[in-house]
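Can you give me the bound-state structure? Components:
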Amino acid sequence: MTQQTKPLNRRVAVKRILRDRQQDVLAVTSLGNPTFDVAAAGDTPQNFYLWGAMGGAVTFGLGVALAQPAKRVIVFVGDGEMMMGLGSLATVGVDRPANLSIVVIDNEHYAETGMQLAHAGRGVDITAIALAAGFEKATTIRAENELEEYVDVILKATGPVLATVKVGTDPEPTALPPGMVRIYAAVSAKRYWAPRPTQVSRLALEILCKSVLKGASILRSRPLF
Amino acid sequence: MSANWPETIFEHFKAADVRQVAYVPDAGHKLLIERCEADADIHAVSLTTEEEGVAMMGGAWVGGQRGVLLLQSSGVGNCINMLSLQHECRMPIVMLVTMRGEWGEFNPWQVAMGKSTQTALESAGVYVYRADDPDDVAETVRAALNFGYNTSRMVAVLIGQRVIGTKNFQK
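Here's the bound-state model for the whole set.
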């Protein structure tokens, strides 16, 4: 019998990937736990969280990557999200954006809906699909040392890159990102990660958003800009 | 002149600084897709399904570029949930929809989505423009580009099947 090792913890894994991130790393997250994982690793304006639009995170990241070729775009998705957007791996594989990485946080279950076994837990190999779709690099990570070895690939290697990070199913506290509100305000202001707005207006936006955070419901009732 | 509406749409794309064009191939968009593919400043992306393009247009906007999604009426049905992205983030999307299932349609399976395209889009919060005369198509697209990007709203132009012509499977 082989020795059973403790599975990776999703929060620890995501935090490790983003530990040394620079300003030129933009993170996009899919709904649910990947959003909470990335928020828990440190909320910043370089994060864009989706909390719906299931199946769309990868091509959302593609649109950002094409618009911002000087930045590294890392899309964090759950394995359920990835299955719903499986075709987007083929689209990315064909388009071959060099600055796009996809990290699948794969717990092999639908953790938020009652822990039903997901396709990845029934034998579907997302890494193999990415390689077959033409990704430059793709691997499955099960242990801490494997993650250590691959972090630089995720952050820097010529893409598209995919990493399937197998994690346990231990529940983690919900970490709603305060930036969720900031994002909507900023997007309403026409641009988020665009070269414009200037530093000054970005700062103004931050200040405004802090005040918005105190009364988020305002966002619902009237436009800010 | 009127037969040249794809070329005029392309000129409007350039004038509006459209930089990303996502599409699911469609005969009605054939010439426009070819022009976008050949342009050095437009990144054209072939999708496996239309909702990928809805999400991609969101990413393009957040990244600071304007995009357009080209699709057929049957693909509109694939997009509805994904449009929650534009709805919730108050982002624009411009969709050019070639209609099937209406004027002289040959394929009965196109009729269902052709019938519900406009109401499905409108129920999802999309503003719908329509062009049934070849002379109106390009100008309607130009108006939609202006409306979408300047008011940050979702807009679709339905290009009537009468403009494109009935698909001939006998040829």
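A couple of observations. The radius of gyration of chain B is 15 Å. The first strand of chain B starts at residue 18 and ends at 23.
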